[in-house]
Write a structure and sequence with these properties.
Length: 305
């Protein structure tokens, strides 16, 4: 690994009751070929279910428990543990595996593009039993873009952030009102963009994510789409009125229905882009009426007496 202090990196991982997957991620990080880094693992399980996996790792690793439930709280806890010497913060999810040159690709693109944020692709790995309509319709699979192009919607699943930029804008926090619905990273990076962040894509900085078979059902995919639409609708309310958002939601449902019917007629089957119009429209209608889609609700930690 390079010892150039200007490339000091901290990799932040929020985890919740997925110790086996966390172990796989940490093992993949042990094989990262270059880049001076340390790892912060924030366990959002008050019982510390990820502790054994973290302590078994050979990495320079800082493990702590954030008992307050919610992904935003865990991400904020990672921000709290940054050091003055840290130059770059990289977010990855606890159910992913990184490639050996992943970090180097992120750093190289940041330097070449003089970027404040660099996002990379997450490649979905499907189980053999996955229904054909899922892969043929391009469901779950995330879009990829040319390196250096503008990153439209970074997330905390594979993104590097220049810490000096965070300091310059007052070190923003993740909004915990999105913890139970998801979307706190979308809202966070939108604020960074509005603050002038240069956000670019690095198509070579690859991480992989195994897709559980339970997520390859139409019901799960549809619910996830509505939830994501609900989050984007909440964000749109900052610039449009509720009535307009409601009407836009209705129009998207109608358009998606027409497009999907046309796909059936032309024997193209279910298509993610068509269903996305419908789910986003439903999510926008819910957001226009303050109806939140809560996907990550769980009991709060018990207070000690």
């Amino acid at each position: 690994m390079t010892t150039d202090s200007k490339r000091d990196v901290v990799i932040a991982v929020a985890t919740y009751r997925r110790p086996d997957l966390l172990s796989e991620l940490l093992r993949s990080l042990e094989h990262v070929a270059t880049g001076r880094f340390r790892v912060i693992v924030i366990d959002n399980d008050a019982e510390g279910s990820g502790r054994k996996a973290a302590e078994s790792s050979e990495l320079a690793l800082d493990y702590s428990v954030e008992a307050h439930p919610g992904i935003a709280a865990a991400r904020n806890a990672a921000l709290d543990r940054l050091l003055p010497s840290d130059n770059f913060l990289v977010f990855v999810d606890d159910d992913e595996r990184v490639t050996s040159d992943w970090l180097e690709k992120l750093l190289t693109t940041q330097q070449t593009e003089k970027a404040d944020v660099v996002a990379g692709p997450v490649i979905s790995v499907f189980p053999p039993e996955t229904p054909k309509w899922v892969t043929q319709g391009k469901f779950i699979q995330r879009a990829r873009f040319a390196t250096g192009s503008i990153a439209l919607s970074p997330a905390t699943n594979n993104t590097l952030v220049r810490i000096a930029f965070l300091r310059d804008i007052g070190f923003p926090r993740f909004d915990e009102s999105f913890s139970m619905t998801g979307g706190s990273d979308t809202e966070f990076f939108r604020r960074l963009r509005n603050s002038g962040a240069r956000m670019v894509w690095c198509n070579e900085a690859i991480v992989y994510e195994d897709v559980p078979l339970a997520r390859t059902t139409f019901a799960w995919i549809f619910r996830r789409g509505v939830r994501e639409g609900n989050v984007s609708g909440r964000l749109r309310l900052a610039s449009v009125g509720r009535s307009r958002l409601f009407l836009e939601g209705v129009s998207r449902i109608l358009l998606g229905t027409i497009r999907q019917c046309a796909s059936f007629i032309t024997l193209r089957g279910l298509r993610a882009r068509d269903i996305a119009y419908i789910t986003r429209g439903l999510g926008w209608i819910g957001a226009s009426r303050d109806r939140l889609v809560v996907e990550y609700a769980r009991p709060t930690a018990k207070k000690s007496s």
